[in-house]
Automatic annotation (TrEMBL):
SUPFAM superfamilies: Globin-like (SSF46458)
Protein name: Globin
Similarity comment: Belongs to the truncated hemoglobin family. Group II subfamily.
Lineage per the UniProt record: Bacteria, Bacillati, Actinomycetota, Actinomycetes, Micrococcales
PROSITE patterns (alphabetical): GLOBIN_FAM_2
UniProt xrefs under Pfam families: Bac_globin
Length: 127
């Protein structure tokens, strides 16, 4: 018997798409984060995040097939990710994950990863 992936256990694509959609709804209304996401790139940013999260959690490998290795720090280097931006990112992502109503175990696992990832993207302490 094959062990179920996290991706499958939480509901697959629809769950991750919902989380990312809710996250970006918060981002576009955020005075700190919105400038990092040009409106014309929002659909692309949304799609890339969904593909990344799906792949990371055991779903389709579309992200790597289309974009190669994630190289998250390198891809975020052009943006000023200071503690305020990191904290706002975590705020919106936490709200989006909580609205998904995952099991407590899955919610905890996902938020733990996302918070650690957000901390690792920090690249400046300047305002």
């Amino acid at each position: 018997m094959t062990e179920q992936t996290f991706f499958d256990a939480v509901g697959g694509h629809d769950t991750f798409q919902g989380i990312v959609d809710r996250f970006y709804a918060g981002v576009v209304a955020d005075d700190v984060l919105a400038p990092m996401y040009p409106p014309e790139d929002l659909p692309g940013a949304n799609r890339r995040m969904v593909m990344f999260l799906e792949q990371y959690w055991g779903g389709p490998t579309t992200y790597s097939e289309e974009r190669g290795h994630p190289r998250l720090r390198m891809r975020h280097q052009p943006f000023k990710v200071n503690p305020l931006a990191r904290d706002r990112w975590i705020l919106h992502m936490t709200a989006a994950v909580k609205e998904a109503r995952l099991s407590p175990m899955h919610e905890s696992q996902l938020l733990d990863y996302l918070e650690r990832a957000a901390h690792s993207m920090l690249n400046t302490f300047e305002d």
